[in-house]
């Protein structure tokens, strides 16, 4: 099966990190394609940036979804996830959602740790939107300087371990989720230092995507994720306009 | 004071309906400016359309907010409201939010009635995002054909009355909110036919906007609505890029 | 329009403070009338005192509401608010409710700060009764000595600032509400010292009252705020008895 | 032990019905005293009437509590219950609260059935205030004419049975609570007609009161039910003023 | 009436402590029978142990319930309570449930204090299962060494007092519940040291059991606690098999 | 990898149905082992049966888990799931939990449909225990006669389709979960008849189990799923006693 790993940030190095973390975990026969946003910000850290990234996600999906069996929105916080699920026919997964749902099988309450406090506000919105706040022990963040987004892991390992341990001891987390695409691939290195399971969202998303493709759910024609009726559009990208106007081939 | 009535739809006739409904209700000295979206869809009725409209709202606000004391996002469902509050300094209100909060002073539970079932899904997301589901008796919608978006009121008055009465009798609504900009100005005509108060969202939003301008709240520098740190951008509209990069004058 | 500012405490100096804080904020044409309770306690700080004050509020409203377009129950905690809304035809607002709803347009979570810990219990009941606990970051109070209720502001400014800052930093408040009528008018002085918006409840209530009078909602004849059926009474004040027995003129 | 059965209505016949239903169920040595409100309404059916009755309850308790080990506020809806618990030292129980808590030991979700729809609004407030809505399957009421409050049982038995059965079949109630003092003593007659347990609130309250007196809990000096600090009063009844001003003997 | 005090632990000394604490509080005519588990663990402190104990509880009840009017599952955490209520006809109470419901009449929020942190996880499940988390201020536990389960009280009194006081001061508890059968009978000694009421679960359970027997609720034939249809079984204890297969006498 | 499919019922035909439904969906290299309960009931349909089955699950896991990478408790309702996760080191999944979490990626609200009403009570407990009631549109069940548990699918297909369609149209379900092991493998046949995705729990569980084994989470040594301290036991099965007493080899 073919899975689209759609990074709604403009930093291709992050896309490559995500693919590097995910590829060793796929089942035989699964192929991952990376895609990096053509415009926007180098990393999404606020709700206004997520609003823009979500719109861009729809545009990117409209253009690239055709060749894939499922798509993964590869920014923790899942910009555009629910709208994408409504608009498109293929299964679409988000790293935050997949990580949280996977964490639910490992403990009663998960915590998310991340490396900027602005992100924590956005992530909290995500937890709430998924109605999983009853399963969330908290979000812990510390804003520390880093030289570049692709260096976050190397420069912050001890800070991330400290946040994870605080989440366990002070907030009662049973599981820790590493929030933010720049932390992809870091989980195994934390294993011995954090006393509870640590979930890497890109791995969780890829494994849930494989599961969904196997389940082969039909596109709903009723309910909250049925496709909206056709609507005229003005000034949108060609592929997105075609999708919204029901002029695209693959319905 | 000057209030920006920002319609994130492309239908200027709806903008004019909103202004016509609101102007008789403003306090002496309040001036309303209308603004219609330059691209997008003629009316927003789904979450994917709202995702795009929210991004456009940020772009429109970046360009036009400078001359105003407050802005109203004039599509029920409030696309881009929370991101706009985060990104900009002036008070920003949404019609849905203002209608719900106003309804809370008139009853314990409000219902929203609207004229397409797709919208109901989006509106439910809005109620949940504002954590007001404990105050919401339900959302009632019926998808009926209409000749044009500006004719909805004339063609659907009896259907809207019927939905409102069902909301009261079957769902236990104490107040009814007319959901959707195309219903602006309709409330007085329903007064005798609906046994509970009926709230017109654009009026609620304008009156709350006047209140907020009078309160003159400071822009927070802490918490969920403080401005995100400066961030480089690629390919965004000039005014929006300037705002995100902290290159705009009015910070 | 004429708004009744009904203070259910016996301290007329507090009534005057409330009027002094509110008058500069009214729209042209709005007239405020003050009314101080003829019996009870000098300031309400507990639920038993609020129970008595709420009954007195109904009695005062029965006697004085006739000349007004709306009424504001001017004790934070809103004694008698929901019963008053049920029993009378004019819009009735509470300072706590109006402050919380206004705060909801300025942040996701508000905190209330106040100057006696007993009050905090009562205020928490109020937040819960309005089903706004999902929007409340907490209530912070410290019981400090003060020479007289009208001196609270002058003697406690630094303590109130400290509580507000703790609410922001430790509880995650996006907005701070000054709880308690004796703090009316204090908000502008705190602006530079508190990093988030500060809401003055009497101003919030007056602006929402103006909005409601403009909206001109009908008295419901169905639902939780419809008028109760006529009932015989024994030993109540004449105006209140007349209202409950449906013998009053203005129904 | 001596239990005060305080009826905050003015109908002595209801007080006698309550005592008649409760007396056969007390433990050896328990003595019940009845007390009927000297003013107010013949039966409380709305939140405004409950506000007044709650204030009267405090006044009646201040005068009569001295000779008792515990008090029961004998109107379903419990007017003044939480304020009374705050203000007085002896255990105070409410019929609604006791019935709901007892019902929680008989099923996961209880329903309340009653004989006027206005009461249902008030009862819903009560369920919410006790944070038991997660245990409540609903409140079912039907407003039917009755000749006098003391004849409700005789005239409405079949209607009450019908409501109870609807609560079970349509709302999923595991237990039914008979709401309203005029239904006291009716439960045994419904036993064969309702397929789940039926709780008589006055019996539940008396048995819980006996339990509390046996437990002999101390009056809290911290928390939400500690006694408020002394406060000057104006115009209150002598016993109530003495209690609030801390001039009463029995603290 | 005859009440069965069923201890699902194997420590008979704890059964005797429970009986010793409860006997002085029963009404004239109430007889308590103790029963200790024939297999399992000496004290239940985890959810896996509770799973086993709950199954054993059903087996013990099937064998011994016949001679009793009600049964009390005498391990805080109530292993098997809801299944027992479903399967058997007599009222069945749990110490945790009875303590929490009783605490609800003494304050708005209760805390549970206990002597091992593992237990706290299990107790939290219990609070959630009863949907009483809105009434729970928290669970405080500290794992301290003790020489034998029957010595816990003597060795830990000061630790328990400290936890109770922290619950009041830091968590806002209005009432404290002593969690764990080994703390039975300890409440009176804490009275002067803890500033809020302290509830002893076995006393609460016995008093509620007396109340239920007096109420004489019918066994439901509808809803969540009606008896499951007959089912063949393999390899279960004779009395339990008879009950599940509907071969027992007393249906 | 090796996955244990543990059926806590005594009906081996159901175990075979589960394996038949799951085997076509596993990734290359995954091997499924079936295990049927040696005692208990032929199918679990109530909470008392689930209590017994959960205890048996622990016993079966203690004996058989050693050869496997993960285990699936293959009765919808997941008897013993959380205790098993606490007690053992390998990942343990439940069919109900896995189905609900998977459904969360396909819609906002799922419904469960099943073929006996008694089961619905138990399933509701499960939804609540996972704190997923905010994602659940309801549970629909109809008790129809069937000749044998292995014939349920063939005899009830139209009834299940009808329930699923009611869940969509009346309850607002976005996804339907087939509740109950006897429905395993039925989903593809319903695809054209139900307008939203249909989730087969055993497939969901197997795919999530593969994902978890790939993630290779560590056994927590802190939090709610850390292993309980060693405890002496009496009368338990040898393997289970060894596990609880920490005498087993593979810790």
Question: Quick recap of the structure?
Answer:
The first copy, chain A, is 41% helix and 14% strand. The first copy, chain A, is of the alpha/beta class. Chain A has 2 domains: 134 residues, Rossmann fold; 104 residues, Rossmann fold, CATH 3.40.50.12500.
Q: Major sheet of chain A: size, sense and barrel closure?
A: 4 strands, parallel
Domain count of chain A: the total is: 2
CATH class of the largest domain in chain A: Alpha Beta
Give the termini separation of chain A: 19 Å
Strand content of chain A: 5-15%
Mean pLDDT of chain A, to the nearest integer, reads 95
Largest interface chains and counts: B-C, 54 and 54 residues
Describe the structure in your own words.
The structure is a homohexamer of 251-residue chains. Chain A is of the alpha/beta class. The first copy, chain A, folds into two domains: 2-95 and 205-244, Rossmann fold (3-Layer(aba) Sandwich); 97-200, 3-Layer(aba) Sandwich (Rossmann fold). Helix content of chain A is 41%, strand content 14%. The first copy, chain A, is built from nine helices and eight strands. Chain A has helices spanning 12-22, 47-64, 81-87, 95-103, 117-129, 152-171, 187-190, 201-215, 238-244; strands at residues 2-7, 31-36, 70-73, 92-94, 110-114, 136-141, 175-178, 198-199. In chain A, the strands form two sheets. Chain A has a four-stranded parallel β-sheet, with helices on both faces. In chain A, strands 6-5-7-8 form a four-stranded parallel β-sheet, sandwiched between helices. In chain A, helix 4 (95-103) packs across helix 8. The radius of gyration of chain A is 18 Å and the shape is globular. The two termini of chain A are 19 Å apart. The model of chain A has no long low-confidence stretch (mean pLDDT 95). Chains in contact: A-B, A-F, B-C, C-D, D-E, E-F. The interface between B and C is large, with 54 and 54 residues. Chains A, B, C, D, E, F: This is Asp/Glu/hydantoin racemase. Chains A, B, C, D, E, F: Belongs to the HyuE racemase family. Chains A, B, C, D, E, F: Residues 220-241 are annotated as: Disordered.
């Amino acid at each position: 099966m073919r899975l689209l790993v759609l990074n709604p940030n403009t930093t291709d190095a992050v896309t490559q990190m995500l693919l590097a973390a995910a590829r060793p975990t796929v089942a035989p026969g699964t192929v991952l394609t990376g895609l990096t946003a053509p415009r926007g910000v180098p990393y999404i850290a606020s709700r206004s940036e997520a609003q823009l990234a979500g719109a861009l996600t729809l545009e990117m999906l409209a253009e690239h979804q055709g060749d894939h069996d499922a798509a993964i929105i590869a920014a923790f916080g899942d910009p555009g996830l629910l709208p994408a699920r409504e608009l498109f026919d293929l299964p679409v997964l988000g790293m935050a959602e997949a990580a949280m749902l996977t964490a639910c099988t490992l403990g009663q309450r998960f915590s998310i740790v991340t490396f900027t406090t602005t992100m924590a506000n956005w992530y909290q919105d995500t937890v709430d939107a998924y109605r999983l706040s009853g399963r969330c022990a908290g979000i812990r963040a510390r804003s520390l300087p880093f030289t570049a987004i692709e260096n976050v892991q190397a420069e912050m390992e001890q800070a991330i371990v400290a946040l994870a341990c605080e989440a366990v001891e002070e907030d009662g987390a049973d599981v820790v989720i590493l929030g933010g695409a720049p932390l992809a691939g870091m989980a195994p290195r934390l294993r011995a230092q954090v006393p509870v399971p640590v979930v890497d969202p890109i791995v969780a998303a890829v494994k849930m995507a494989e599961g969904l493709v196997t389940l082969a759910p039909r596109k709903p024609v009723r309910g909250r994720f049925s496709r909206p009726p056709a609507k005229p559009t003005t000034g949108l990208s060609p592929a997105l306009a075609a999708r919204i106007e029901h002029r695209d081939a693959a319905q």
